[in-house]
Amino acid sequence: MIFNKDTAKKTAEVLLQINAIKLQPNEPFTWASGWKSPIYCDNRIVLSYPLIRNYIRETMGKHIEAHYGKPDVIAGVATGAIGIGALVAEYLNLPFVYVRPEAKKHGRQNQIEGHIEKGQSVIVIEDLISTGNSSLNAVAALKEAEVNVKGMVAIFSYGFNVAVENFKNAKVELHTLSNYENLLEQALDTNYITQAEQDILIQWSANPSEWNAN
Q1: How would you classify residue 179: left for phi > 0, otherwise alpha for psi between -120 and 50, otherwise beta?
Q2: Each residue of 188-204: pLDDT tens digit?
Q3: CATH at residue 189
Q4: How many angstroms from the chain centroid is the CA of residue 200?
Q5: What's the pLDDT at 93?
């Protein structure tokens, strides 16, 4: 769920401004999964824009404190959320760790990088939620380390039903600054897209794996 409507609209606005999110319903992208998609999202781009990364950092930090109180540790999901997660931890003056997709094959063979202790409370930071599988893999690693995962906060979610079910089944609370629904509203309001293009984008979100621009 989004924290609030104003935040969702503002976040969508800044992500569109810096092309962290691109909408091309008539010239779709091809994702690594092979899906054809009218949207491409790379929220790591926010790190290159100081005013916008500060907005994301402070907005995430304030919402975390308001909703969860102050956790013991902030954890970022590698690699996309390492940067923004560290910024949120700095804003809240908290320790930071990050979670790899799997344990390293050498050295200390860590999956969690940084210092964390059993029983500590953790908020997980993500840059983008699609199916939620990689995000929940990080949560599983943290739970295996016997810490208390209070929830996850992400910049943006595509709002796929499979993600909703995955987070529900894993019993993990997810909040996002913005999502696909609010992105389309903002894009239409600012004439970034037309009504006809919005209709195409809505059709895609209803069945993204089967959607074909042709």
Answers
A1: beta
A2: 999 999 999 999 999 99
A3: 3.40.50.2020
A4: 23
A5: 98
Q: How far apart are the two ends of the chain, measured CA to CA in Å?
A: 32
Count of all residues that appear for the chain in the document: 214
Q: Print the SS3 string covering 65-112.
A: HHHHCCCCEEEEECCCCHHHHHHHHHHHCCCEEEECCCCCCCCCCCCE
In a domain, 205, yes or no: no
214 has pLDDT over 70: no
Residue type, position 76, single letter: G
pTM score > 0.90 for this model? yes
Residues contacting residue 173 through CB under 8 Å, at least 6 positions apart:
150, 151, 152, 167
Q: Write the CA distances from 133 to 56, 129, 163, 170, integer angstroms.
A: 23, 9, 8, 10
214 in any annotated domain: no
Report how far residue 145's alpha carbon sits from residue 123's, in angstroms, rounded to the nearest whole number: 14
Identify which of 37, 50, 36, 41 has the alpha carbon closest to the alpha carbon of residue 16.
41
* Residue 211 placed within a domain: no
Segments forming the whole domain that contains residue 40: 5-200
210 within some domain: no
Alpha helices in the chain (DSSP H): 5-17, 50-68, 82-92, 133-144, 161-170, 180-189, 195-206
For the chain, the average pLDDT equals 94
What per-residue confidence (pLDDT) applies to 104?
A: 65
d(CA 68, CA 121): 10
